[in-house]
């Protein structure tokens, strides 16, 4: 079936208000749903405000578990991803990355709304290969209610989602490369474009639409990227280059992580003159990342793999006002499991985060990874705690005691797997308490087999522990 651009964009007037009322009908709000395994939803509606510095998918299971205990968890997410289809979207639309925000919204959403068909739709990706016109035609088809992808989704919710896709098709810059594009990301981008930039309005709407049982917000609402200086002098530009997703990853420990406005994709313009600027997989133009190294003898030698010839410049940007307010009002602040540098530490880089954490009168808890995190390269738990404290003190002040920044580290001495060790003495020397608790699932064979981060922590045990440690203000 052929659908023209005009037909695709000529949708209903404004179904947003009606769709958001789906969540307010009798018996369908948060208080009407039984909690998953613990307490009533009425208790969860008044549960503690636990703030997570997070990113990626490491907290998906924990997010599900939390919704049965509190509907007030706050997930401050890193919007710095630079790999895959996200890189393409960010090159054409100078905006924060939204993939991790999308994943967390769905993880916290009411399953009565976020049904399997809706989740599948938001996760739908266009083909990595194929003609530009064919893929764009597919997007226009998806903007029509006649497309079978909308079957099984509440009609009012579907109307709002299609409206956001039509906004994307209307406002996106010409020549957008659809190869490998994630539909859920395009929906959020449509709201971003419709409101003139800024993720606040579209995140607020999707939170209501999906009856999200918590709060999801970016740590900054700005178009920024991550860069890392390694101890061997190498500087890597782009989150995907640091975390090793779609790129080799780090080969030496990280000396410094920082934010930059320098783009991993050069000037972001197509080079082959085609309609989508395609040059390589997913239409990524030119180099996806660059590397610079210090030369021998102390002189600086810049060597870029194409594109930029000078190292990225650090950008000093403030934490968003929304994120700062949530930190100040927290009943507990958690530095959780996940990619240590690109998911956790990256959230601490904006100015004001350290001061906000220091000023919050609540417990501050670090739950380190159990298993292998390629970003840590053998760092002990105490080493990671020291990195967190140093990052927070850069903003809060060098003399701020650990008790105001990070007072408890949760480990599992029985089942936990910490490749660099725990180093209890090192933690105590920093003024950090160690809480040994059964928060990691036992591995078959006594833990002798290789493991990764995914699935290692017991989500229910971690959720119980954090809600128990929270101190309501």
Task: Give a verbal description of the structure.
With 473 residues, the protein is an alpha/beta fold. It has 18 helices and twelve strands. It is globular and about 65 Å long. Among the domains are: 225-270 and 284-316, no CATH class; 321-469, 3-Layer(aba) Sandwich (Rossmann fold). The relative contact order is 0.13. The strands form two sheets. A seven-stranded parallel β-sheet has the order 3-2-1-9-10-11-12, sandwiched between helices. Strands 6-4-5-7-8 form a five-stranded antiparallel β-sheet. The model is unreliable at 1-12, 22-39, 267-290 and 293-302 (pLDDT under 50). It has helices at 5-9, 16-20, 41-45, 60-66, 84-92, 99-108, 116-123, 132-142, 155-171, 183-194, 200-209, 239-243, 321-328, 340-344, 353-359, 381-396, 424-429, 459-469, and strands spanning 50-54, 74-77, 215-218, 225-230, 235-237, 254-260, 291-294, 300-301, 332-335, 364-366, 408-411, 433-436. It starts with a helix and ends with a helix. The longest helix has 17 residues, at 155-171.
Produce a short descriptive summary:
It contains 18 helices and 12 strands.
């Amino acid at each position: 079936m052929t659908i023209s651009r005009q037909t695709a964009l000529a949708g209903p007037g404004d179904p947003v208000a009606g769709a958001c009322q789906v969540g307010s009908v009798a018996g369908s709000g948060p208080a009407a749903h039984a909690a998953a395994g613990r307490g009533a939803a009425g208790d969860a509606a008044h549960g503690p405000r636990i703030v997570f510095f997070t990113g990626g998918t490491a907290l998906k299971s924990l997010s599900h578990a939390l919704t049965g205990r509190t509907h007030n968890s706050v997930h401050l997410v890193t919007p710095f991803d630079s790999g895959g289809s996200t890189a393409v979207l960010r090159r054409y639309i100078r905006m924060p990355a939204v993939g991790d925000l999308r994943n967390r919204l769905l993880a916290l959403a009411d399953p009565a709304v976020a049904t399997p068909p809706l989740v599948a739709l938001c996760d739908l990706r266009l083909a990595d290969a194929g003609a530009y016109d064919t893929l764009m035609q597919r997007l226009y088809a998806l903007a029509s209610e006649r497309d079978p992808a909308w079957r099984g989704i509440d009609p009012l919710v579907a109307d709002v989602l299609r409206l956001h896709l039509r906004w994307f098709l209307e406002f996106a810059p010409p020549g957008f490369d659809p190869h490998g594009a994630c539909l859920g990301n395009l929906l959020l981008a449509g709201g971003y474009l419709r409101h003139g930039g800024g993720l606040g309005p579209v995140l607020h709407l999707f939170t209501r639409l999906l009856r999200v049982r918590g709060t999801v917000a970016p740590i900054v609402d700005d178009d920024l990227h991550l860069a890392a200086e390694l101890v061997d002098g190498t500087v890597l530009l782009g989150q995907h280059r640091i975390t090793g997703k779609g790129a080799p990853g780090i080969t030496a420990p990280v000396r410094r992580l920082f934010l930059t406005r320098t783009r991993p994709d050069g000037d972001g313009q197509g080079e082959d003159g085609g309609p989508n600027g395609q040059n390589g997989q997913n239409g990524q133009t030119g180099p996806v990342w660059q590397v610079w190294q210090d030369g021998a003898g102390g002189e600086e030698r810049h060597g870029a793999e194409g594109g930029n010839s000078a190292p990225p410049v650090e950008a000093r940007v403030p934490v968003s006002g929304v994120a700062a307010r949530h930190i100040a009002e927290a009943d507990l602040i958690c530095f959780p499991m996940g990619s240590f540098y690109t998911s956790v530490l990256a959230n601490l880089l904006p100015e004001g985060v350290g001061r906000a954490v220091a000023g919050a009168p609540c417990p501050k808890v670090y739950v380190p990874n159990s298993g292998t995190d390629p970003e840590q390269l053998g760092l002990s738990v105490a080493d990671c705690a020291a990195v967190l404290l140093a990052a927070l003190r850069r903003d809060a002040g060098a003399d701020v005691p650990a008790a105001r920044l990070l007072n408890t580290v949760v480990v599992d001495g029985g089942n936990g797997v910490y490749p660099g060790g725990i180093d209890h003495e090192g933690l105590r020397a920093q003024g950090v308490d160690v809480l040994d608790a059964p928060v990691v699932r036992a591995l078959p064979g006594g833990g002798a087999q290789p493991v990764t981060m995914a699935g290692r922590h017991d989500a229910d045990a971690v959720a119980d522990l954090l809600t128990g440690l929270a101190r309501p203000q």
